[in-house]
Amino acid sequence: MKTFKIRELKSNDTEALLAFEVRNREWFESHIDARDSSFYSLQGVAEHIQGYLSGFAVGAWHPLVIEDASERIVGRANLKSIDPAKGCAEVGYRIDRDACGRGLATQALRHLIEQAQHRWQLTQLVAYAFRENLGSRKVLERCGFVCERSPGNEEAECRFVLAVTPGTECTVIAQVINPAMAVVQVKT
Prior knowledge:
single chain
């Protein structure tokens, strides 16, 4: 059984995050839109992290990373475009190709749902997945998201929606090891 940790993104994650993104670039780009090539540098990732942390400071983002037992980043998960007035946010996640199939995306998404409910008091989460990205679609459906389909709409991307109730319990199969830092230990 391997142990993984979910924690908030930090400014000193630049090198580890760049290594994760470079290691998985081709894999990610086969499932989601490609990042600009300028992202794949220490400066590009440092600016990316600073933007996310600035967004976190004003309540627009909640960026997380997933680490394995050796503290290597093997995944990311985010609440983004947090809108307290509307009670909604978008979720996103990406898992290292070599860590797929271990339930990390499901656990990370459940953690995001819990954060949306308790920390942000949100009532709706939205996610987008390309129709051919069956892994992400299964994760979203497993966590209760429903694909909104419009009659006659055959777009490449599907919009998934989850209604949540702030303050209610959410089943997360993980152990909170430091609530102040939002660090969660996941055993698979």
